């Protein structure tokens, strides 16, 4: 069964979010020289800090991100792709309003993090992180439970576990920077999976909702 243009556009946006965010993390991180960027030690937010200096009283580390503007733009663009993609594909995926609202809030948190880097407005940036960590991952978990979707269920559970451990400053031997990524990445990675699945096998994603949505084209 074919999907309509709106759903196809939304699925494409979902599929693009994770590659954009991952590439930005890699490229902006490679621009660091002294010190080199560490995925185990440094937070994702360190890539967007606009000034150079020792940062974070709980885990003091020297942060200097030459391409911080690129990272902050990537934060915002990733959020736009996710929010638009989630909304445009909601009916095709048969998603309930509460899990959708939670995931949209989590996606918006990424944009907020880019608009307000940690060393510019720490309080707003902290709020952004909380949105990604908690509603974003809880929405994934709720979606997985409601739709019996193993991908969403595992992604949400993994993200929430990472969030709890990161907040508790427990790194499970991988470093707190890596643990933060366990909390941050699942939403975008799941979105990429969901978008690709809609584009490739639409008849297997929320089939009843998809038939109803397609009939209204």
Write the layout of secondary structure elements.
Blueprint: H1 5-30, E1 53-55, E2 61-63, H2 68-93, H3 97-115, H4 122-147, H5 150-167, H6 176-200, H7 207-215
Antiparallel strand pairs: 1-2
The number of helical runs is 7
Give the end-to-end Cα distance, rounded to a whole number of Å.
13 Å
Order of helices and strands: HEEHHHHHH
Unreliable stretches (pLDDT < 50, length at least 5) are 206-217
What is the radius of gyration? 18 Å
Provide the domain count.
1
Structural class: mainly alpha
Major sheet: arrangement of strands: 1-2
**Spatial shape:** globular
Helix % is: 55-70%
Output mean pLDDT. Answer: 92
Strand element count: 2
Strand content: under 5%
Oligomer: single chain
Largest β-sheet summary: 2 strands, antiparallel
Describe the structure.
The structure is a single chain. It contains 7 helices and 2 strands, in the order αββαααααα. The chain is mainly alpha-helical and 217 residues long. It has one domain (5-201). A two-stranded antiparallel ribbon has the order 1-2. A hairpin with a 5-residue loop joins strand 1 (53-55) and strand 2 (61-63). The longest helix has 26 residues, at 5-30.
